Amino acid sequence: MALREHLKEARNRLIKSGIALVLATVVGFFIYNPVLTALSEPILDLNAREGREAVLNFDGVASPFDLLVQVSVFIGIILASPVWLYQFWAFITPGLKTKERRVALSFIAVAVPLFLAGIYLSWLVLPNAVRVLTDFTPSGFSNIILVTAYITFVLRLMLAFGIAFLLPVVLFGLNLVGILTGKQILKAWRITVFLICVFAAMAAPGGDALGMLYLAAPMLVLFFIAIMLCLLNDKRRDRRRAALDAKVEASADTASDLDGL
């Protein structure tokens, strides 16, 4: 495809993703209240179970509306994830022939559950993260937390977990289309492990080492599983290439024999 055609395809896929995101965001408006209540539970538990004084507070007239939009868009990102993940992968899959369509659908079948699993894992980590971080509050003080800052912290944490779980799938997908080999990924395992730990330390809440472990451990397991799958796929591709070369060589020998006759 020419550059203009690639740009046109990218525009069309962005439009489809945008439409799906808008429709899912509308759904997010209707379920905003129960979702906000669920996200606020870790703060409410501090009051109910540990006897602390912790409240969520709005700091402006327009803050409730801003929060409504922010949470609804986040809900839309999650609900529309099958669409925008497919559009992303379909764009980088060349040609979209029958085989590539199967690869794209396989990518979605794995990527969407992993993305949602990352979101769910962050939800499990969140109460412990809130408890550990608020433990630094000195005795006699209260936690009056801006609700916009708290929700931003929660949504960023969830997106970090969800996107982190997509990394191994992207690596395997790039291997499937022949951009990266398993050996190339394996050679960089040390720096990758280091970067995963750095990312986990930055994405996990402040001083919570347990949150970092919760994020880094699954990413490392998925990364090494992706390496194994890439190496197996490389072996399968090499066997297929060797069989094709043998067939071509046999055809060439047959043609030489016919020329001799």
UniProtKB/TrEMBL annotation:
InterPro entries: TatC
Keywords, ordered alphabetically: Cell membrane, Membrane, Protein transport, Translocation, Transmembrane, Transmembrane helix, Transport
Principal subcellular localisation of the protein: membrane
Topology class, membrane: Multi-pass membrane protein
Function description: Part of the twin-arginine translocation (Tat) system that transports large folded proteins containing a characteristic twin-arginine motif in their signal peptide across membranes. Together with TatB, TatC is part of a receptor directly interacting with Tat signal peptides.
Family designation: Belongs to the TatC family.
NCBIfam families: tatC
Protein name, entry field: Sec-independent protein translocase protein TatC
Record organism: Arthrobacter flavus
Taxon lineage: Bacteria, Bacillati, Actinomycetota, Actinomycetes, Micrococcales
